[in-house]
Every structure is written in C-alpha cells, then in structure tokens.
Specification:
The chain is of the alpha/beta class and 276 residues long. It has helices spanning 59-73, 89-94, 110-119, 139-143, 170-179, 197-208, 258-263, 269-275; strands at residues 4-11, 14-28, 33-39, 43-48, 51-55, 79-84, 102-107, 132-136, 150-156, 180-189, 213-220, 228-235. The chain folds into two domains: 4-55, Spermidine Synthase, Chain: A, domain 2, CATH 2.30.140.10; 59-275, Vaccinia Virus protein VP39 (Rossmann fold, 3-Layer(aba) Sandwich). The protein is 26% helix and 33% strand. The strands form two sheets. It has a seven-stranded mixed sheet with strand order 8-7-6-9-10-12-11, sandwiched between helices. A five-stranded antiparallel sheet has the order 1-2-3-4-5, with helices on one face. It is globular.
Length: 276
C-alpha cells in the first residue's frame, strides 16, 4: 500500500490527512489547482486547492441534504438554479424530482465538470439531462443578469476563499432574491460552525438582511471539517423544515428521509446562541 498522504489544513492548529494509493489526475485550471486521488478509506476524491470536495464514500450525504430539503419543502420546484456544483452531484439529486421542468447550472470552472464526467460518472450522471442548461460562467455575474424566475436556488460552492469568496456576500444574496419567484427560496452551504464560525454567522446575518424567513439545518459529513456541517435557507414564503403536503420523496435514498428532514433543523444550543 502506498504511503502517500494528502494533508488538508483548516486552521493553524488543525489539519487532517488521508492516505492515498494513487494520484489519478492533476492540473492547474485558470481558477484553482484540481486533483483527483484514490484514497484508502473514501475511494476516489476530488480536491480543489488542497481541500477535499467530494469522495465516493460519502458524497451522497451532502448532495442529498443540500438538494432535497429545499426541493421537498417547496410545493412546486419547477425551475431551479444551481450556482457552482460543477461535479454534478447536486444536479443529480435535483433531477430526480419529476416536477422539475428546467435547471440552470452556473459553474465557473469547466475543468471541474470535465474531471467529474471522467472520474466520477456516478456523480456526474445527470449532466446530460435534457432539462439542464449548463453555463460556464461566473455565478456573481450571472446573478446580476436577467434570468429566472426560479422557484429554488441552490448555492453549492466551495469554501469562501478564492473563486468562491464573492458568493458569501449580502449583495450576492440580494441578487439571488431578485432571481426568485414570489414564493422562492435559496439554500447555501454555510460551512462548519465550529471551525468557520465567522463565515457561518455571516451567511445567516446576510440572508436575514434579504429574506423574511431564514433557517439553518445540519448534516454530518465525514470528509468535511470534523463535526456538523450547516446549510442556511432564505425563503420568501415557505418553511424549509416542513415537507410540502403535495410532494413525494424520490426513491431510493441513502441518507435523506422525512425524519432526517425534520431533525436536521434541531440545532444544538451553542449554535442557537451563535445565531442570536
């Protein structure tokens, strides 16, 4: 077995590492360093600028939770926008809803899309869906344009550094608000409340400046920074912790179910205190 390791540094005092058996691909795109590696514990993994984005073993947790919570709490998610998500995992889950009529996906780095098609075909399986319009473009600029209206917007971005940093601002959320229909909602991956508390609190605060209803929910994703990972919903009308009465859950699921949907919004006391 190879004794090569991938190191991921989160803070000056905390890093994690994964043993890898092979480096399948490496390149420097116009936006970031992209690597695909074979890990011992988690199978193939996509790494951007040194941070693990998806692994074969646990990607379903993140993708099911970022997609199905908003898709099932909205009564008619016919038109959807995905910002980021170039690996295709969020799209794969959104595309499982027969109510979907159109999905626009805006990814800044075409090389992420191509790498996922090549190395993660089970994740990228919906990239040929006829309902998809794929834009290789800057999500910030796209949000300023004349698009929509959308029922659901999913911001599936990497961490708020590098090309993803402008996706964590109040101006961006205002532009997303304007792209939504009168009863639309947006969900944002909002980081670890333990390791990136400022980013987490900023997302909640910024969305509260824009949307009348803001809610946080969590999932536990082993390959992300240790502990809980958060998602924050800004909604014009519907509560995200309630599944719409007319909606049925696609089957089969590997993580998401009705109980998980409800329980994900039960927040530990320290997180509630952070949001006060």
């Amino acid at each position: 077995m190879s004794n090569y390791w991938i190191y991921e540094t989160h803070t000056p005092g905390y890093e994690v590492r994964w043993r890898i058996t092979d480096i399948l691909h490496q390149e420097t795109t116009p936006f970031q360093k992209l690597e695909v590696v074979e890990t011992v514990e988690f199978g193939r993994a996509l790494i951007l600028d040194g941070a693990l984005q998806i692994s074969e073993k646990d990607e379903f947790i993140y993708h099911e939770m970022i997609a199905h919570v908003p898709m099932l709490s909205h009564p008619h998610p016919n038109r959807v926008l995905i910002v980021g998500g170039g690996d295709g995992g969020t799209l794969r889950e959104v595309a499982r809803h027969p109510e979907l009529q159109l999905v626009d996906m805006v990814e800044i780095d075409e090389r992420v899309v191509e790498a996922s098609k090549r190395f993660f075909p089970q994740v990228a399986s919906a990239l040929n869906d006829p309902r998809l319009n794929l834009y290789i473009a800057d999500g910030i600029e796209f949000a300023r344009g004349n698009h929509g209206p959308y029922d659901v917007i999913i911001v599936d971005s990497s961490d708020p550094v590098g090309p993803a940093e402008p996706l964590f601002t109040v101006d961006f959320y205002r532009n997303l608000y304007n792209l939504l229909d009168e009863d639309g909602m947006v969900v944002v991956q909002s980081e670890s409340p333990l390791f990136f508390a400022d980013s987490f609190k900023n997302v909640y605060s910024f969305l509260n400046q824009v949307f009348p209803l803001v809610q946080v929910y969590m999932a536990f994703i082993p390959t992300y920074v240790s502990g809980p990972w958060t998602f924050t919903v800004g909604s014009k009308k519907y509560r995200a912790d309630e599944i719409a009465e007319n909606r049925s859950i696609p089957s089969p699921m590997k993580y998401y179910n009705r109980s998980i949907h409800k329980a994900a919004f039960a927040l530990p006391e320290f997180i509630l205190q952070m949001l006060e």
